[in-house]
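Aim 2 progress update. The chain analyzed this quarter is reproduced below.
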Amino acid sequence: MSLPTALRERGLRVTEPRLRVYEVVGTHPHADADTVLTEVRRTLPTISVQAVYDVLHALTDAGLLRRIEPAGHPARYERRVGDNHHHVACRSCGALGDVDCAVGHAPCLVPSSTSGFTIETAEVTYWGLCPDCRAAETT
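Predicted structure tokens:
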């Protein structure tokens, strides 16, 4: 399905900022808002910081983007939605990567108690060192 169709189906207008933000997140998976802003400004130089945040919020609320919030790092955005994958994060440089769910269905983890909640998904972040940071530590 095309992005304009997906936007309309979710009750959103098709705008140039929405199209550009979505495109940038596709070419820069796990980008933070500053990276999105910098890249969008290459084609829309007058777009404001607030407009980028508003678009990221609207696309996330519409289920077209996923917001990832690794502890101690700025929120990141990705277009991989609709599955229950997790992330691996470098504790040194903050690089992120995708990790498929170990079990393959949502939720991947079965809690010992739900405290009355209906569990819909589980988020796991694996922390470690990326190959570049690991190599830098050994030199």
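The chain has two domains: 3-68, 83-138. Residues 49-61 form the longest helix (13 residues). These observations will guide the mutagenesis experiments scheduled for the next reporting period.
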